[in-house]
Specification:
Helix content: 25-40%
Radius of gyration: 19 Å
Structural class: alpha+beta
Order of helices and strands: EEHEEHHEEEEHEHEEEEHEHEEEH
Mean pLDDT: 97
Number of helices: 8
Largest sheet: 9 strands, mixed
Number of strands: 17
Low-confidence stretches: none
Length: about 280
């Protein structure tokens, strides 16, 4: 089946899905996006993703040419048009085509693009055995330069960190903020387990407020697992009993080594396994 891509209210075959080369989303990374999962035909937490998309757009003064309810309907109808029961959605809004200059006032016709496809970030064995991450020199964007809570099309900060991780032989990078505190990974939030408590950096550490992160915190609360936001350093990661990452694409994946140091006993821990199982139950039943 040929994939159908939504652009500006119409569906196009994947090979024919095109926008202007003068679009400022391409020229300057001027736009916002969301990544959303489909589980058993249901779009996971669509309302939360749409809300975050519009908040990102508001921050960069980008007027989305659809009401939030229309955006949600467009996403749902595109999923149905592609007959996807399990997959990944990329909802994108660009600034629109304009002149060769930064001025957003000289653009018009913001493009709403919805892609429905498959995604696989990590091989299955890493979910069973755990993965290794490495702290990289590229810090998370300073909030006063580009707030990490904006999910923008300019992802070079994350990509540069990902390149460093790959060069270090890892698939994911641990990024610190401008104060040297643990922030997040290139595409995932980070959690630690220490003395039975679940810990994660606060929003003011300079992180994206992940939808999966929020879901995991809710699951922990329902399971009577103590969970709290806490400013942390690499020492906290090295000395943790368990570590895992969360993200729309990654879901819940254990981390067993950071910067060459084993975390806990070097195997996925019981709290990680429990929350991963609870997340599977939440999304697949």
């Amino acid at each position: 089946m040929t994939l159908k891509v939504y652009i500006g209210g119409k569906l196009f075959d994947k090979a024919d899905a095109k926008i202007s080369v003068y679009d400022h989303g391409l020229l300057y990374g001027d736009g916002v996006f969301e990544g959303i999962r489909i589980y058993e035909g249901r779009v996971f937490r669509l309302r939360e993703h749409v809300q975050r998309l519009y908040l990102s757009a508001k921050h960069i003064k980008l007027e989305i040419p659809l009401a939030p309810e229309q955006m949600a309907d467009a996403i749902t109808s595109t999923v149905q048009a592609n007959n996807k029961r399990n997959g990944y959605i990329r909802a994108v809004v660009t600034r629109g085509a304009g002149t060769l200059g930064l001025d957003p006032r000289k653009t018009s016709d913001p493009q709403v693009i919805i892609i429905v496809d498959d995604i696989s970030l990590y091989p299955p064995e890493l979910y069973e055995n755990g993965m290794e991450i490495a702290t990289v020199a590229t810090i998370r964007n300073h909030p006063n330069a580009l707030d990490p809570r904006i999910k923008s099309l300019n992802y070079l900060n994350n990509i540069l960190a990902k390149i460093e991780a790959i060069q270090a032989g890892c698939l994911e990078a641990l990024m610190l903020n401008h104060k040297g505190e643990v922030a997040e990974c290139t595409g995932d939030n980070i959690f630690l387990v220490k003395d039975g408590a679940l810990l994660t950096p606060p929003l003011d550490a300079g992180i994206l407020e992940g939808v999966t992160r929020t879901a995991v915190l809710e699951l922990a609360q329902a399971a009577n697992i103590e969970a709290r936001e806490m400013t942390m350093t690499r020492h906290d990661v090295y000395s943790a009993n368990e570590c895992f990452l969360t993200g729309t694409a990654a879901e819940v994946i254990p981390v067993v080594k950071c910067d060459g140091r084993l975390i806990g006993n070097g195997k996925p821990g019981p709290v990680t396994k429990s929350l991963r199982e609870r997340f599977h139950q939440l999304t697949r039943q």
